Amino acid sequence: MTLPEETRYQLDRAVEVFRSSQRCVVFTGAGISVPSGIPDFRSAGSGLWNKFDPMEVASLTAFRRRPEVFFNWLEPLAVNILNARPNPAHIALADLQKAGRVQTIITQNIDRLHQKAGAADVIELHGNIDRLLCLDCRLDFPLENYRLSWLEDHTLPRCPGCDALLKPDIVLYEEMLPEDAWEQAEALCRQADMIFIAGTSLEVMPASSLPMEGYYNGARLVIMNLSRTPLDGLAAAVIPMDVAEGLPLLARSVLA
Ligand code: ZN
Question: Does the annotation mark 90 as catalytic?
């Protein structure tokens, strides 16, 4: 692959930062799953929200008051995610983790593709699509149990104990991020000496404040994203590449 000179230079810098780091934490966003065919469902302009107002459908209020609208929105997304396969970016990160170059992957994604690629240590800031939660009993159930009844026969998923509608264990608008995941992620970013940011333009708060917190506690930032991010000016290297192309290239050099 022929790369522009500046991109090659930034890649080489990124490799140096990787090689001289002991505690590298990775931070990923929707961009890393786009090559797997999963649209960036939170960002405006992704195409998905041209049809819906996110606050109207993807919020806790919508789930409670207009569950049909909520589940109509979620259903195709859930089917899409369940059928998606990890792409070379997920696999490269899992390889870096297996080789001990990456400690933990913190993700804003709900699709579990990091785990499907073989990553072991993953913190999910926005929950994941694999579980359904009863808000009354506080019990959760695997989505797999409802795959036929909900995703194929379109019967809304209900709690076997109390018959309440089950909420997917993903963070909706109006909901807080899960406290445990947040605290772990924060602690990791504070002790990291490197944070590698991939496939996110760092626009979703409060999650995007984590790399910033790492930076102010001494971590060097390396960013791989097609569009610019607010932290580019602070980063030791900024690689303007598609993650599915750039990450395998980077991982090969780091592991060489
Ligand atoms: Zn229940």
Answer: no
